[in-house]
Protein 1
Amino acid sequence: DAGVIQSPRHEVTEMGQEVTLRCKPISGHNSLFWYRQTMMRGLELLIYFNNNVPIDDSGMPEDRFSAKMPNASFSTLKIQPSEPRDSAVYFCASSINSIHEQFFGPGTRLTVL
Amino acid sequence: ELKVEQNPLFLSMQEGKNYTIYCNYSTTSDRLYWYRQDPGKSLESLFVLLSNGAVKQEGRLMASLDTKARLSTLHITAAVHDLSATYFCAVDRPENTDKLIFGTGTRLQVFP
């Protein structure tokens, strides 16, 4: 199994631009999580999906952030417009409901100038 | 609200020494997870502890869970430089078991 796949691995953009991060979970996993990690705030859960349905988006910082999961093998996290304070590493993780052990992707390092 | 606390936050230890990292959590939970993160890398699952009294060992690392005390420990035996990383514990929320609550992490540095 290839594990959780994220793209791009690195993204550098200018303030005000739209950014889209992508994630492919492990096949057969039915929960998908988006996290953000910074030195100041540590690891934060932004949103998670179960069977493609958003269950808890209370961690999404503001309306500039949105996430979708159109099918079991793909999810996106979009930031529009981006701001310098959004600079962070964004991780996607997936798990099977019965076990809850989460497997993390390699992350996307986002820099907003 | 479930809170997960780790201590110490930073640990600098000499090769060959033993030490324990502690993970305390504030409400009932039967499942606990340990992860490792190398600098600039992703989180890697180390241990899954699914019941009171569970003990798991991998190489120089051993994890245990005491659900009555709401405490998990990660014991390091005869540390080596390759163990230098940040270690996170995470706990299932009892009312919402899809979601894990992560501790702040313990940054471990092993020096010669």
Protein 2
Amino acid sequence: NAGVTQTPKFQVLKTGQSMTLQCAQDMNHEYMSWYRQDPGMGLRLIHYSVGAGITDQGEVPNGYNVSRSTTEDFPLRLLSAAPSQTSVYFCASSGTEFFRYTFGSGTRLTVV
Amino acid sequence: SQKIEQNSEALNIQEGKTATLTCNYTNYSPAYLQWYRQDPGRGPVFLLLIRENEKEKRKERLKVTFDTTLKQSLFHITASQPADSATYLCALDGNNRLAFGKGNQVVVIP
């Protein structure tokens, strides 16, 4: 099925560990974004990309890295996990008109 | 600073009535505004988009209005059903990216 695929769905990390959240879309969308969602905070933009090879920071980029080597994939790397990064992470993609985003099902990350 | 404000209190509404949600924004000049639906444990799902030069948009039982003078959008669910119970998010474009409000929960009581 066409859409945005995120893996893993759940993850528990220890403080200081690193990991990569995977995101792939098969709709040939140019725009891709990573959001985190915390209770009472809504969706906050971490990083985004307007095309392969182009990334930029969003509202809360510290502690995260991204790269966009292909149109399809947009992985999010946590460099050294901290408890403050406990959250639900959503990847989203959009065509070039109107940022009508398709979201993945999310990754629930707990850092202990 | 830029803000997108939605009511933090859940809206409890009787089945069959019209639910109305408000989205207010400051320090944005959006070319369009979007509404998404989010169910617990799932990602947001796009519902409607309205452009700055449109006053109203409809899709089945959903209606959105957009007043750029008031900097406000209203989202209506007519003839509400228990299946409409969810959180509804308002989103605005700004600097080539989409910013979201915190969402407003709707509970439709049978």
Protein 3
Amino acid sequence: AQKVTQAQTEISVVEKEDVTLDCVYETRDTTYYLFWYKQPPSGELVFLIRRNSFDEQNEISGRYSWNFQKSTSSFNFTITASQVVDSAVYFCALSEARMDSSYKLIFGSGTRLLVRP
Amino acid sequence: GAVVSQHPSWVICKSGTSVKIECRSLDFQATTMFWYRQFPKQSLMLMATSNEGSKATYEQGVEKDKFLINHASLTLSTLTVTSAHPEDSSFYICSASVTRYHNEQFFGPGTRLTVL
């Protein structure tokens, strides 16, 4: 069965430190998508990235970077030079293809990141 | 583009009453809409999937008679929590997807339901 594991429940860092959030997934699909979302205290999910299973190139967007390793079924997320505004819960998610061609998202349990000034 | 709204953003009701939550895709027509529930400090759990004009598909363990979903048009889906009880208090989030965006889901801002 599809599964997403975010082993880190909570991480606390001091501003300007780098931090990596881990995500490990399990799937039998050959084609799938992986996502990261940020959920600030307001509750609204903020889309960060989508990665398709055929594209293993790492991606960088400003202070954010993602490392996709198919061999270890991991899709880790690194924030460089963290800021207080990065404090939020971060969810990793995996898409699961269904019979009707729609996709279902399987979410990890989330990692709560606290960046202290 | 790809904006999804939810109304209301929060609601407080008495036990036994029914509450309706609306989810709208504002600038696109959604092929499919999804309803999630999130309890405090927990992850999002998919409750049901709905396609316009057809019955919703509920996830295992979700009571379809309690959580009524109506997907009347390509831009509107509603979730009605019938005879709400305190244990139904949660954060309800909808999302909408469209085929041309490779089925990517666009999330609404969520509705916080408190049942007294």
Protein 4
Amino acid sequence: QVQLVESGGGVVQPGRSLSLSCTVSGFSFSSYGMHWVRQAPGKGLEWVAGMAFDGGNENYGDSVKGRFTISRDNSKNTLYLQMRSLRSDDTAMYYCAKEGNAYSSSWLESWGQGTLVIVSS
Amino acid sequence: IQLTQSPSSLSASVGDSVTITCRASQGIRSFLAWYQHKPGKAPKFLIYAASTLQSTAPSRFSGSGSGTDFALTISNLQPEDFATYYCQQLKSYPLTFGGGTKVEIK
């Protein structure tokens, strides 16, 4: 079955960097667009970034543009999120999610359990 | 594109029918999805293309609307349906979610 497992979360000081990973199984990773979505404590879901199946198209939310970079390694079935210049308002549970349609942008069909990032001095 | 959900929360009893609305700041045709989220769990995808139920979602969930106004209706509310529900637009980047509607037990 489809599985997405996030890792890399933890406590980091403001201004520092952190890298998240999402390792997947149970589907053809190289055929699907992938996304990162976060939820800050007590807040709703916020879309962070997305990347096309072949890595050719990447997009970002306004609050992270210029600080976060999404990437993927289709040979390793892994999605990444490199986060720089972290701020306290980046504190959140970070989820990776798989699109529902192969080769085209679509809804977020499957989600991981999330990895928690806490930005604090 | 901004999405405004209402109400932000509601209380209902098992067996009730509830409707959540989602209004887009500009027309998005039918590029809308709905998700269910429970504390400590991964969000669960329910509906795509505004009204198409995903294959494993219970039939008591239904979606409607197009353009700027959308709705999610849950008929015959069950104990496992108490959760927070979010709409998401897929028309253009950046993708956006509505603020969420928390469905609580009365």
